[in-house]
Amino acid sequence: MLSPKRTKYRKAFKGRIHGVAKGGFTLNFGTYGLKATTADRVTARQIEAARRAVTRHLKRAGRVWIRIFPDVPVSMKPAEVRMGKGKGTPEYWACRVKPGRIMFEIEGVSEELARAAFTLAAAKLPVQTKFISRVV
After folding, report:
1. What is the pLDDT of residues 89-120, one digit of tens each?
2. CA separation (Å) from 70 to 18, 36, 79, 84, 133?
3. Which of 8, 10, 96, 131 has the fewest beta carbons under 10 Å from its own?
4. Is residue 136's pLDDT more than 90?
5. Contact at 8 Å (CB) between 80 and 4?
6. Which of the four pLDDT bands, split at 50, 70 and 90, describes residue 60?
7. Domain-by-domain residue ranges, the chain?
């Protein structure tokens, strides 16, 4: 699974996801892409599950790019622990995804195959998505 090698701070603020993507909203690598239409936190496990679904459906044909990276540590307190006593330990890594962000790209396969693969990937993600293609 994806995670940063090192970070400046071990724990991060929760924050809020406002506005639309100010970068990563155009196809840069592939012919087809999966674009987020809502905002949410996507975990490293969800990214990996979506990647596996895509590569399995494509039967390892074509090329897949992951355009998001989980760089936000999400901390949790253990179950049945009283309030107070500080912040919990980092449990997993997540990526803040804004509307308009392209999350995955595919090249070297037909549009029907790419569309079907991204439908499977979208089922693994917490954000609503849409299929986009490069106008040639």
Report:
1. 999 999 999 999 999 999 999 999 999 999 99
2. 18, 15, 24, 28, 25
3. 8
4. no
5. no
6. confident
7. 32-70+96-133
Amino acid at 135: V
Could you tell me the CATH superfamily of domain 32-70+96-133?
Answer: Ribosomal protein L16/L10 (3.90.1170.10)
DSSP the chain: ----S--S-SS-------S--SSS-S-SS-SEEEEE-S-EEEEHHHHHHHHHHHHHHTTT-SEEEE-----EEEEEPPTT--S-SS--EEEEEEEEE-TT-EEEEEESS-HHHHHHHHHHHHTTSSS-EEEEE---
CB 74 within 8 A of CB 41: yes
Q: In what order do the strands lie in the sheet with 72-76?
A: 40-43, 89-97, 72-76
Residues present in the chain in total: 136
- Check: CB of residue 40 under 8 Å from CB of residue 5: no
Residues 6+ apart with CB under 8 A from 49: 124
135: pLDDT strictly greater than 80: no
